[in-house]
Amino acid sequence: MSKQQGTQEDRLYRIRHSAAHVMAQAVRELYPDARLAIGPPIQDGFYYDFDLGMEKGRPRTFLPEDLEEIERRIRRIIGGQHPFVYREVNADEARVLFADEPYKLELIEGLVEGTVDEYGEETEGSQVISTYTQDTFEDLCRGPHVEHTGQIPIEGVKLMSVAGAYWRGDEHRPMLQRIYGTAWANGKQLKRHLKMLEEARQRDHRKLGRELSLFVFDEEVGPGLPLWLPNGEVIINELEQLAREMETAAGYRHVRTPHLTKESLFQRSGHLPYYADSMYPPMEMEGVRYYIKPMNCPMHHKIYGSEPRSYRDLPLRLAEYGTCYRYEKSGELMGLMRVRSMQMNDAHIYCSEEQFAAEFMGVIDLYLHYFRLFGIEQYQMRLSTHHPKGLGKKYVDNARLWARTEDLVRRTMQEGEVPYVEVADEAAFYGPKIDVQVWSAIGREFTLATNQVDFAVPTRFDLVFVNSDGVEETPLCIHRAPLSTHERMIGFLTEHYGGNFPLWLAPEQVRIVPITDDHVVSAEAFQAACEARGLRAGVDASSARMNAKIRQAQLLRIPVMAVIGDREVADDTVSLRLRSGQRRQGMPRAACLARATDLVAERSADLTELLAA
Q1: Sorting pLDDT into bands at 50, 70 and 90, what band is 124?
Q2: Helix extents (H) in 416-519
Q3: Sign of the Cα pseudo-torsion (442, 445, 448, 452, in order)
Q4: Cβ-Cβ contacts under 8 Å for 142 (sequence gap 6 or more)
Q5: What is the enclosing helix (H) or strand (E) of 301?
Q6: Helix/strand/coil percentages in the chain, nearest 5
Q7: What's the pLDDT at 605?
Q8: With contact defined as beta carbons under 8 Å apart, do 138 and 145 qualify?
Q9: Residue 211 half-sphere exposure, CB side, CA atoms within 13 Å?
């Protein structure tokens, strides 16, 4: 980051932090009985949580017209140019100051104990208790802020939405009202941000999923359990075929495992203590408890251990598109991005320590290949390590192996010249990992894939191989999922492409448009020729006019439209129109089929190459 970027980000942080306080003051002035919770700055803006009490037996909520009134009050406070004044207080003073604020009092106790900061986030060591005051409003805060409210650009602040939020993120605690706002250095930046948000709404995979008939959710089936429609199934099949081709070429062996297993398997693997809250409850049959699986790895370990292994068998790469189930909290479900049923592009690589670097980099190279294929230009490799205080609780208690494997991953990434950032206390319970952050074409960030090192679980399953000296060793295990889950990958790609999938991935690749009923027979013959070449084609034989048919195909984001009229029937040609509007008249059908087939086989993203055939 350049010094100028750092200065700009620091300025925006202060503006957003200060705007959160001003919004809290505005709400308090308009709703004197409101109780304050927390109000941090966040990416692109800020929020503040409020408890408005009860109304007619139900929690009081903000309405859209309330936000308009709050925004007007914010402008008035900003215009007052009130200084932000810092002061430190002791615990007793803080308790008196916030005697009528139960949420603040809870935070104060956490500050005194040194367990949380003023936003309720976990921390360590004693905390200074401090406040900031502007005008008549004082809030628990450590800063920083702008010097006075007048430094918050009035034209750069806008309240965006209201959402429910559990206090401290705990569904067993009170539900609060969260107002989200955005704040920028000037009105021009705000307008640019709002334009990007509108583009994001248009690309939202939930909206496009309905419009393109990719998937649905049904309450009677259950939240977070997607039903894939035929168009979505096409994309799933294409991604799985891509993965199988790449994995087969890289020496992977494909396996299948059941959807449920005995409780004892997850007890042995060590997953149960760490993942029980995210697992569906067990079922009991004939006195035995079973779980539906939240991950595939214990079963892959069983496959590895099903026969003796020698160093000549390694590396052993086992891959599976296995369906897993995780009980994500209702408030965390979000379209395909957070679901409860998922098909994972999963694999486990068993290797010696000497083979580790080559195998780990082989996975990284696979990531990079997929990024190029999908046109993902912005990404970040994030090395997630453990925290010593989590040993025995959040992480396997073996400090020596943690240090060794984390160093192994660092050296591998550095020797492979792969840039990465390091983040503490985000490792898997059994070892360090590389999480892959990607950004879509509209700048939305996703955690798309993972590459994890497991030094602990193979030992639990007594997995060994006989080395070249005839001595048994425990293999390292690499957990990897470069294409994430079908659900998250398709959600991401839908937004990344804005529904305009490349030809090879599009559910319907060619829409054939007969100009009149007299041309339907010829159109159906061309459809059969397309399907014989493996192309997914449909005929619009409706009574609509040609332009209406083309418009409908464009709305469905079908890549290619092939128009057939009298001339095309006579000359055995088609007139092509791409969804972008580009055209070519009178293209020989054989040439069109050959080039389209080649583009699909190449998984090309350049549709215009079809017109050049």
Answers
A1: low
A2: 457-460, 486-497
A3: positive
A4: 117, 118, 128, 130
A5: helix 297-304
A6: 40, 25, 35
A7: 92
A8: no
A9: 19
